[in-house]
Design goal:
The protein is 55% helix and 17% strand. The protein is of the alpha+beta class and 179 residues long. The chain folds into 2 domains: 1-87; 89-155, no CATH class.
Length: 179
């Protein structure tokens, strides 16, 4: 009774038993292909979902790294600012101006006579962080450079002139010269 239509058609003589078997095999193959196709579609859907999840995790990881880098940069900048405020040698009563170039502009800072001398000797640096200029020792300026690379640091190096750079090296100065 399982195949009553097939049995009825073979008894009526419309189809032969051989044709009925071939038809049964074809329908069985079609059912198997539908099941396999459904399984591959499900596999494709699961694969696409896993790929989307992996992309989302990678994007979230990148956003977290960027956020952590921004927080670390902000903390380093705050530490540099605190170090500058603790070790600055700016004098509120200074009246002399010391001029220097920053980003193509001539800027100035008020200094005392001793600070001007130490600046020209290269023992003191000017650090620009934000809108303010700080006078600090060179060690502090180096530390600030590592903490906040965006800070502008002006350091005058006291270099002796090189022997090859002096255009008057070939002309001896007389001993009896009086100015």
């Amino acid at each position: 009774m399982g195949n009553s239509l097939r049995d009825a058609l073979t008894q009526a003589g419309v189809v032969s038993t051989r044709q009925a078997k071939v038809s049964a095999q074809q329908s069985k193959k079609e059912r198997h292909a539908k099941r396999a196709g459904a399984a591959t579609e499900q596999d494709e859907i699961a694969l696409a979902a896993a790929k989307a999840q992996a992309e989302k995790c990678a994007r979230d990881r990148e956003m977290n790294q960027a956020r952590e880098a921004a927080v670390a940069a902000k903390a380093a900048r705050a530490q540099a600012r605190q170090l500058l405020q603790e070790r600055m040698q700016n004098d509120a009563s200074a009246t002399l101006t010391f001029h220097f170039v920053e980003n193509g502009r001539v800027c100035h800072v008020y200094v005392t006579e001793t600070q001007r001398e130490t600046l020209t000797k290269g023992q003191l640096s000017i650090v620009a962080l934000g809108e303010r200029h700080y006078l600090v020792p060179n060690e502090v300026a180096d530390r600030v450079r590592t903490l906040a690379p965006a800070a502008c640091i002006h350091l005058l190096e006291n270099k002796p002139p090189a022997a090859g750079d002096d255009p008057y090296a070939a002309y001896p100065v007389p001993d009896d010269l009086v100015w």
